[in-house]
Design brief:
It is a single chain. With 494 residues, this protein is an alpha+beta fold. It folds into 3 domains: 129 residues, Sandwich (Immunoglobulin-like); 62 residues, no CATH class; 236 residues, von Willebrand factor, type A domain (Rossmann fold, 3-Layer(aba) Sandwich). The chain is built from 13 helices and 23 strands. A hairpin with a 3-residue loop joins β19 and β20. The two termini are 26 Å apart. The N terminus is likely disordered.
Length: 494
């Protein structure tokens, strides 16, 4: 996957900001004026509101408050001793200085603000971002950058101290951003707080920047997994000839049977001679088909740590797709709950990973029961090619998982199903009684152990029927899945 592009947003004038301005900015902006047809007094209202709107963007600084506080005793003393004129002159001097300071603050015409954030970022990933402030004002100006990002993106704190910018020296503000929730979001407006040359007044200049950010499932470490796939190809090529896509498979050698091997590849004559199970090994066929099936039903909404299991499944699925495509395989996708939510036919084109990523960015887990029959029926109708079907789901016990057991075992006649069962680590921990546990805790441990035993029974039924099973914790799922995928390719199990 290519690295996300950075999208700098162009500067816009402060008096043209869009309607999506958030409440934090409404303190320095006025409501939009009525249209000319709404009232015969609209032009008059505009002439009244416009100056008020402009003044609302100015605010006194603590320095001005300090000056006033220091001048107050002088004014009081002057007034008490009959020097009212001197006191009035002092007040007038402060007012003129404050007004002059405010009038010497440039507007958005002289200050440009450019934001460079990553166009895409993975959930939980951190990327660099910048704000750049440039000035055409003839004098240096002290500014501070302010923003309010959507809740789906968090960022390191912006500098709170004012920093100088002039015609020759733009200001570059660096920060880091972290993706929090999947989806595409407008980043919203940003603002500059500009100080007058004497620091008595500041002016808020708002820029309506129209850039967006897409938070996608993370594929952090994908490069490492691609390297593993590449090393696998090199290692395999040293052992036997690598056949090209569409060439089929041919016999390479014999080896000892390994649990999980396709029983159809057992060489019974060699087994009889050696008195142990022997499997036939074949050349690796490039361009195998990987079909990723993701259950987005009720059980996938359960939390694993601070994230739903579904989020871990999405990240692992996208990483698997990236690795398989880099290994020359075709990859497809189906997402389902009570109905099929998305389907991508297996392909190996430059746009395949992007299409899968876009689908996974937009899907959500629901509180409905998954319809495995509909998902497998769709797979049977649309994908005739023998495939590795990687099913991300949860298995509880034989009774509740009857559908997934029946359908995966049936599909094993034509495909190689791999059920990625997301283990509940909290349940595993609860099944281990602690020393000195109370009766209630002992009961809970026994109940947890019983649930785990029922789950193990369901998984064992699948294994006995020729279904590959990966029983893994969500936090270690990606590494375990990629290793199993490479193992299957090396054994030519497809």
């Amino acid at each position: 996957m290519s690295s996300p592009r950075f999208s700098p947003a162009s500067r816009r004038r402060s008096d043209t900001h869009a309607s999506q301005v958030s409440p934090i900015w409404q303190a320095v902006t006025s409501p939009p004026t009525s249209s000319p047809t709404s009232s015969p007094t609209s032009p008059l209202l505009h002439r009244v509101v416009a100056p008020v709107r402009a003044l609302a963007r100015y605010a006194p600084t603590p320095r001005l408050a300090l000056v006033v506080a220091l001048a107050a005793p002088i004014w009081i003393f002057s007034s008490g001793s009959g020097g009212q004129a001197s006191g009035a002159a002092l007040v007038a001097l402060i007012a003129i200085a404050a007004l002059a300071d405010a009038l010497r603050i440039p507007d958005a015409h002289y200050l440009q603000l450019v934001r460079a954030f990553p166009a895409t970022i993975g959930v939980g990933d951190t990327r660099d971002a910048t704000y750049e402030v440039s000035s055409s004002w003839p004098m240096p100006i002290m500014v501070t950058v302010i923003h309010q990002l959507p809740a789906s993106v968090s960022a390191s704190a912006l500098p709170t101290q004012v920093q100088p910018v002039d015609q020759q020296h733009p200001l570059l503000v660096s920060l880091t951003v972290t993706g929090r929730a999947r989806g595409s979001f407008p980043l919203g407006p940003a603002a500059l707080s500009a100080l007058g040359p004497w620091g008595l007044f500041r002016r808020s200049i708002i820029y309506s920047l129209d850039d967006t950010i897409s938070v996608v499932p993370s594929i952090a470490g994908a490069g490492r997994y691609r390297l593993l796939a590449a090393q696998h190809r090199v290692r395999t090529a040293g052992q036997r000839v690598i056949r090209r896509r569409g060439a089929g498979t041919s016999f390479a050698n014999l080896r000892d049977y390994v649990p999980g091997d396709d029983p159809r590849r057992i060489d019974w004559k060699a087994t009889a001679r050696r008195h142990r199970l022997i499997s036939r090994e074949f050349t690796v066929e490039q361009g195998q088909t990987i079909m990723i099936a993701i259950d987005c039903g009720r059980m996938m909404t359960q939390l694993a740590g601070d994230r739903p299991r579904f989020e871990y499944a999405l990240a692992s699925a996208l990483t698997l797709a990236d690795t398989a495509l880099s290994a020359g395989d075709r990859v497809g996708l189906i997402v389902f709950d009570s109905m099929v939510r998305a389907y991508i036919a297996p392909t190996r084109t430059p746009g395949t990973l992007g299409a899968i990523r876009d689908v996974l960015t937009g899907v959500t887990a629901t509180m409905t029961e998954p319809d495995y029959a509909a998902a497998f029926r769709t797979l049977a109708e649309r994908n005739r090619r023998r495939s590795l079907i990687v099913l991300f789901t949860d298995v509880i016990d034989v009774r509740s998982s009857r559908a997934v057991i029946a359908l995966t075992t049936r599909s094993a006649e034509r495909h190689l199903p791999l059920v990625v069962a997301l283990r509940n680590e909290q349940l595993v921990a609860a099944a281990v009684p602690s020393p000195g546990a109370s009766d209630e805790q002992t009961y809970e441990s026994a109940a947890a152990e019983e649930l785990l035993s029922a789950r193990d029974e369901a998984l064992q039924i699948m294994r006995q029927a020729g279904v590959a099973v990966l029983d893994t914790a969500p936090t270690t799922m990606t590494t375990a899945l990629i290793n199993r995928y490479l193992e299957i390719k090396e054994r030519s199990a497809l």
